[in-house]
Amino acid sequence: MLLYLSARSPNPRRVQFFLAEKGIEVPVEMVDLAAKAHWSEDFRKISPRRTVPVLLLDDGTAVAETIAICRYFEAVQPEPNLFGRDAREIAVVEMWQRRAEIELMQAVQFAFRHVHPALAEREVPQVKDWGEANKTKVLDFLTFLDGELATRAYLAGDRFTVADITAIVAIDFMKVARITAPEELVNLARWRAEVSVRPAAKAGA
Predict the structure, then answer these.
(1) CA of 143: how far to CAs of 46, 160, 181, in Å?
(2) Which site in 3, 16, 44, 193 is 20 to 30 Å from 53, CA atoms measured?
(3) Who wins on pLDDT, 8 or 188?
């Protein structure tokens, strides 16, 4: 088994955070994205879409999506549970994981990729108006999330789950996208402070 990661990248960090919460250690190989190592033919054979993270299993199976990798390890080691314990909780965690991934993380990544000059060569075409529009989408979701966190401790309920991992990694990545959460979102700030002090939050940061 071998886990391919890259430094300072949000999706690899989600996997590292998840594994740290589980207390699972996996052999790792770092892929240098700045040097375009993910565009090599050798790496393309492992990850045809040239993305990280990728989990290469002992039988040669390559799992190249963040949440798919996390689900694999949840099945291998169910506790501590991070995807839900019963039908209701699984559904709620999945709902919030999807919201955090699509409405927050994806929007932050679009804002970064389509505005940052250094990404112009990789993001073709780079549409700056789309990047700026996604900054507005991020702030809208954060306001919504702040209201939800007024009623509970974590995104999907009263305990920490994979949905919180996706959300905090996305919010931390806002810094490079030059997006700042409004100070009046006090419930969001409370949640962010609590999640950020978890020992596992240091993984991949």
Answers:
(1) 39, 20, 9
(2) 193
(3) 188
Place of tokens 């919010």: 171
Sole residue written with tokens 């006090």: 186
Distance CA 116, CA 132 (A): 11
Buried b (16+ CB within 10 A) or exposed e, 145-178: bbeebeeeebbbbeebbbbbbbbbbbbbbbeebe
DSSP state of 54: E
Half-sphere exposure (Cβ direction) of 117: Cα atoms closer than 13 Å: 0
**Residue (of 203, 205, 195, 197) closest to 168 by Cα position:** 195
Pairing relation of β-strands 54-56 and 2-5?
antiparallel
Q: How far apart are CA 24 and CA 22, in angstroms?
A: 5
**Phi, psi angle pair for 69, to nearest 5°:** -65, -45
Which residues face 55 on adjacent strands?
A: 3, 63
Average pLDDT, the chain: 94
Which residues have C-beta within 8 Å of that of residue 22, sequence separation ≥ 6?
A: 73, 74, 77, 80, 82
In whole angstroms, give the CA distance from residue 166 to residue 176. Answer: 16
In this prediction, residue 120 carries a pLDDT of 66
Q: Looking at the whole model, is its pTM more than 0.90?
A: yes
Over residues 115-143, the pLDDT tens digits come to 877 676 777 887 889 889 999 999 999 99
